[in-house]
Amino acid sequence: MEHVERKRAIARGAGSNAASRFEPAREAVSDGWPGGQSDDDALPPWRTEVTEERPRSVITRNTSPDLSFDRTINPYRGCEHGCIYCFARPTHAYLGLSPGLDFETQLVARPGAARVLEDELRRPSYRPAVIALGAATDPYQPIERDRGDTRAILEVLARARHPVAIVTKGTLIERDIDVLAPMAAKGLVRVGLSITTLDAGLARLMEPRCPSPQRRLAAVRKLSEAGIPVRVMTSPIVPGLTDHEIEALLGAAAEAGAKGATWVMLRLPREVAPLFREWLETHLPDRAARVMARVREMHGHKDYDARWGHRMRGEGVYAEMIAARWKRAARAHGLDTRLPALRTDLFRPPERAGDQLALF
Known about the structure:
Layout: H1 2-8, E1 49-52, E2 60-61, E3 71-73, E4 76-77, H2 101-105, E5 106-109, H3 113-122, E6 131-133, H4 144-147, H5 149-160, E7 164-168, H6 177-185, E8 189-194, H7 200-206, H8 213-225, E9 230-233, H9 246-255, E10 260-262, H10 272-283, H11 288-298, H12 317-332
Helix pairs in contact: 3-5, 5-6, 9-12
């Protein structure tokens, strides 16, 4: 079955679609007819399908000590970008879908999310703090071009003068500069744009439906020129695969106008680990053993260790070396400073038609 799925996975990150940890195992079985499930030459490539859900709430809270924010909004479930290393893949298991190809092809949109957000921001008990937009799945993945759910959410936040930190690999964010630039002028927005490698060939394999690295650098430049503060996220750093690019990546980010930078080491939680190992064996078999040896060296001889304070960076000599190199390069390029805190004092509950006008 994995061979069949891999042949159908054109321009996808994952090469298989194993059942989630909550579902029984799947197996393709021939029904005896030509073009049946066992006839891999007759099966079509995986296509992107979008279903819809009507959310009751859109702001998700977290208490992770590893994160600098306590609330997030993700306009979409699943992500067509298909990054093989994506730590959010296991979330698809809660939908009864595979963290493999389903995560990239069975997407869930949330129309009406902007209206629900208005209701949440209007509650008397609500207190503003920075919302991370796209902390799990990308708010500017390809389906946003037609649906516009991310833009609708941003328009609500802009009217409410609410601070937002956006995380994306998508250059479609340039479309929303007309909303983001005025917010930036008030100290209400910053953008984290992820660039994992400068090698276009590797990026195509690892992040098959993301814009090219050079195109993302161009977006950094365009956002910066519009006065929107951008930090480049050199994340994840993949040991034995992209770690040699740290200095070059930070240099390119600074040249493009980034104001800061961050990094995270490769994380392989739950189903991501076997998917990533399969990807390595398929595309880079000569480097697979070295990459996984480095990963396990940092996590107590395991593929992943989820401990707070450890999972983002790992530990040991190799992890310390990467941290030292990154810090030195960031300092050399002026990217080692924290961006100014976003403002919360301008917040006001979003008004609707029919509301009494504010008194001056």
